Structure formats: C-alpha cells, structure tokens
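Q: Start with the shorter request: fold the first protein.
A: Done. Sequence, then structure:
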Amino acid sequence: MNIVITGASSGIGREVAVKLALDPQNRIYAVARNGNLLRSLSEAGGSKNIVAVPFDITSGRSSIRELKKRLSMEAGSIEILINNAGHLVNKPFEEHSEDDVADIVSVNFTSAAALTAGLLPLMGKGAHVVNIGSMGGYQGSLKFAGLSYYSAAKGALAILTECLAAEYADRGISFNCLCPGAVQTEMFKTAFPGFTAPVSAAEMAGFIADFAVNGNRFFNGKILPVALSIP
C-alpha cells in the first residue's frame, strides 16, 4: 500500500511510519518540514520503504498540487492518508497572538483539509483517511486552560471527518478521526508540563498503524477516543 503520513519527523507520526514500514508491501511517504529528521527516520528504522518528503503542509494549494504531481508519478495511487501533523501553543486565551491562532488553525485544520482535498484524486475505493485529533477536541471531554484554540481546531477536524465520510461514501473512501489522550511526546510536555503520560508514542503508534490498515473495515465517519487518561 502507498501511505502518506504528515508530521512524520517526530513523536507519534515518526513511530507510525516505522510501524507501517515493517510490512515490506507498504511504501511510506513521510511528510514533515524538517528534512534532516525525515532522512534519519529511514536510517534509524532500517527501512528502505520509507520515502522522506520534506514539505510544509501550510505552504498553500499550489505546493500541494506539486506534491500531488510527485505522488502521482511515483506511487500512482494512495491507499492511506494519515493527517497527523499538529501544532500546539499553551497560553491563556486572551494572550494568543494573531500568528499563534493562524498557525494553530492552519496546521491542525485548514492545511489538513487542503492536503486531503489535493490528494483525493489519487484515492479510490477502499482508501482510508485517518485524521489524528485530540481528546481536547472531543465533544464532552474534559477541557484545560491554555489549550482553547488547539482544542477548537482539533474539534473542527473531527467534524470535517464526519462531513467527508458522508460526501465520499459513494466513492468508497472512508474517513475516521482518532482522538488520543495522554501520550508521552514533546507536544504533551508543552501542554502539561511536569506530567508523565501512561502511554508512549510507540504504543499509540501501534494502535494507529493497525487502525489505518484495518479500521475502515468496521468504521466510517467515526470520532473515536483513544485514551487511558486525560492528561
């Protein structure tokens, strides 16, 4: 399978790429801004089927069209897209600058939506789009001060998932949103300084990798909490 993962240079995304690369039939297109970290990904995992794609998902639709062109030439089709990239700013609601808000909303929502729209022409029946949300964006979950814009953006991504599942049902493309709880990553440390999460990035990645491959057999248009604790 041809699999695209954003935010693949570190944390959960990096671990998901490593997990999926264990199957030699998979070709992983690992997308992130940091080219050096991406190049070290395949070396660290010893995986020849991980392709480093240095790319800023916030760079606009024209850049996404270029990425689509590359993937069309190299892969031909995409079976799985994992929108994992995330950006978090932890500060009081009133203190978020315009740049803070723009970056949070772009990475967590609008750029994920734009990338999905740009790559949909490469997807056929049976394709699976997995959006990585957050328990912060899960309706009815416990909320925390300082994470208002981040949580709201992840909530928007969750609702988009439901909308696209309905819109593309006739094409046989599935959309689901996983909402991790506390996972020990750098982003978690930013959100909850001093806390230790009960789940490692590698453990969460194992679940996400399996769900990306098999979850659309049982789920479509679902927003699924994946949490042992919050935080």
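Q: Next, the second protein, separately.
A: Sequence, then structure:
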Amino acid sequence: MFDTIILCADGSEHSLRAAKVAADLARKYGATVVGLNVNQASLPMLEPSAQVAGISGAVYRQQFESAQERICDGLKRLFSELDVPFRFRAEVGQPVSVIVSIAEQERANLIVIGSRGMGSFKSFLIGSVSDGVVHHAHCPVMVVR
C-alpha cells in the first residue's frame, strides 16, 4: 500500500509524534521514509537580519545548519533503532509548495505531517502548512496531533 512516505520534520513535538507514526506505518508496509525539513527563508536573505541583530552571517549560517543537522540526526537515530529505511532532505522555500513538489518527485504514497509546528498566532496569520498540504498534495496526507 505504501512504498514511500514523506515525513515533514521541523523539530517540533508534533513532528516527533508524526515521525513515530510514519515509522510505525513504514514498518508495517515495508516502506521507506523520506524526512523533509523545509526552511521558509533562504540564508542570503536572513544573514543581513542576523547581522543587524549582532550575529555574523557565518555564525547565523552555522546555527541554521546545526539546527537542520540536529533534526536529521535525531530522525536517523529513531529510524535506525526501529530498523526502518530512512533518508533526509533539507530544502529551502515556501513549505507547502516544496512539500507537495518533493512528494511528487519522490513518488510518495503518503505524506505524514504534524498538526502544528509553529506558534498558533503565526499559523493564523500565514495559514497552516498542514492544511495547505492537505489541499494541494497528489497523495493521501496524514495529519498527526
């Protein structure tokens, strides 16, 4: 039923719960999980803001990459312990369109996403990523609370 599962991962508690669900489904169906972290802003755009805040561009870049590595390493550890095939992709762009595009590229049969990854006020202002993915994906989407 499922060969490839896209797991949307941002390091939040909701995405950790989604990872556990994706791992369980992958084990049950013999699927591969592709962890996907999408950062909404590109580094060149953010580095000037970091410099205004007193952080050098190099330090900001290091913190940004370190956060992605922490997410990747945590997921690799989880999926390795559960003996589930896993790959990780880090992308930059508008989260909904990138998630939908990567799911199509990977020929995913399912997208698993947490119900919330950011503060509720910010979600209200820019719209829910999970809601956008549900409405635009070519395949089933499981939203984990």
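Q: Describe the second briefly.
A: Residues 119-127 have pLDDT under 50 and may be disordered. The chain has six helices and five strands.
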